[in-house]
Amino acid sequence: MAESLFIPTEASKEEKYGAILPQIEALISGEKDLIANLANISAVLKESFGFFWVGFYLVKDNQLVLGPFQGPIACTRINLGKGVCGTAWKENKTQLVPDVDAFPGHIACSSASKSEIVLPFSSNGEVAGVLDIDSDKLADFDETDQVYLEKLISILEKTM
Ligand code: SME
């Protein structure tokens, strides 16, 4: 396992994602423990992009329960179909939300959160959890984030 990350500075978003995805793959591919891998992925994303909040919720007993994350304290449980995370789980589909106040039922863990992207991941054909990233800026995520984060989800799913 590499001891430190190489994160290009002064680089475009594409270049940063391009640089960190192989490093994430190297970091998690030899490790089967899901919590360890989710913790490291949260750390890499936080260190690379400085996101306001980045972390995971895991499906447990028919709820999403807070998992490894980086950032301020967050809501611990989310029901199916509730908020952006519960919607990503229910629809098994990435949710790209430029303005959280315009998303019906958005769960405000922090009033500082302005935009959000949530991606589900699966194990054995069922959604096992979601990756949630929040920004304190409006419309901070776009299709580029979606494309690269979906690649990250594929890398994660291969370890599960
Ligand atoms: N805003 C999310 C809840 C989780 S926090 O943002 C960390 C939602 O609406 O599902």
From TrEMBL:
Residues 46-153 form the GAF domain. It comes from the Bacteria. Belongs to the free Met sulfoxide reductase family. This is Diguanylate cyclase. It comes from Belliella aquatica. The lineage of its organism: Bacteria, Pseudomonadati, Bacteroidota, Cytophagia, Cytophagales.
